[in-house]
Amino acid sequence: MPELSPRRRLLVLAICCMSLLIVSLDNTVLNVALPSLQKDLHADTAGLQWTIDAYTLVLASLLMLAGSTADRIGRKRVFMAGLVVFGLGSLLCSLAPSLDLLIAARTVQAVGGSMLNPVAMSIITNTFTDPRERARAIGVWGAVVGISMAAGPLVGGLLVDSVGWRSIFWINLPVGLAALLLTLRYVPESRAPEPRRVDPVGQVLVIVLFGALTYAIIEAPHAPATAVPFAVLAVVALVALLRYEPRRAEPLIDLRFFRSAPFSGATVIAVSAFAALGGFLFLSTLYLQNVRGLSALEAGLWMLPMAVPTFLCAPLSGRLVGSRGPRVPLAVAGVSMTVSALLFALFDAETSDAGLFVGYALFGIGFGFVNAPITNTAVSGMPRAQAGVAAAVASTSRQLGQTLGVAVVGAVLAAGVGASTYRDAFVSAAVPGWWILTACGLAVLVLGLLTSGPWARGTAERTAQRLETAQSSASERIHA
Predict the structure, then answer these.
(1) Could you tell me the residue range of the domain that residue 292 belongs to?
(2) Is the whole-model pTM more than 0.90?
(3) Which of 22, 121, 190, 308 is deepest in the core (most CB within 10 A)?
(4) What confidence tens digit (pLDDT) does each residue in 430-439 have?
């Protein structure tokens, strides 16, 4: 890809951020709309979980395929296709007459979304080649998540209260159309010099693993006998994946990446942080509207103490990563998220306005600091030719984490509430869920410290050398 002027690079960053905005807005807006959707479509807790997880599950399953496909046939081409499919899925969601059809439309959205975020991150990685510029760009990218968290609940609450929950999907259409036209005009095409081959067996195993695991978790409180075979199927798929992928010359998941401690740490941190986010939003939305009796807009206003710190801390985190590395941002993130979850687990913070405010603010600070080091660590040190795959692994970890967070916390909540009403049993039933989120925060803290020191950097350097050597050898064999 030719070197772009500074103004053109910033324009490319802005266009890529527009895709992240509609994908992130979709999740935050939908969370606020859950209680209204629950009443209108007569959904139970499991139905609400599937409304969210159908999207994140398909997204997680297809992200790596989308990243490698974009490296092969062109990142701009795949990115534009993703915008079209995501817009179509959004339109279908707004027209869905039943919960089952809404869930089906969410999967269409996810197919489009899988072509957006990892491909956009790959475009950014190849546009901003200077490490410090890249870290700052990724910080801006992370700030967009904060914007969506701030605007999503407010916009969603306003739309749900005034027009209805279906209107929350309409906002994706104009933003997606603008991003499509700007991409066509200003984003240059790029692809990997030597793209990876398709790995259909690995792709199927990933879909089976994620799908079976999520189904087993969500259905366990309601139908344990049905959940067990799916849990076994998930284990079988995982074992098959670990045995099959190393034997391929160009696997869907290059397990050699995980020899880098920072990359492995970033992957697990992403799962933990986004599991905490998914569980946090799920519990908070249901509590504010179903227990406190707030309207969708009032619930959105209560999300601001979490959303504003995320928006403010994300670019600060990006600058810190660029100047001092990922250690400090990850430590701040881990401590803040852990303390926030502890307030709810130990002191029922949601039962008082002050406790709710502090808990939300601390979580927002933690989540604002965690995103930039995850992304930067995932793509740093990896060959630029495989930027799409490395970025897709990080994005997959995020979506898988959010899927598992909603599935696990929702299952725990459903088991605790039982036949009681939300208003009577919610706070006590949510306590195990808050302990799970506490464990997620601790994982971010401990792994952040362990995988950001000199030993970890050494493993990253050795891994990069091995990957580059293997890539050079493969190129020589092809051209021989």
Answers:
(1) 6-189+248-479
(2) no
(3) 121
(4) 999 999 999 9
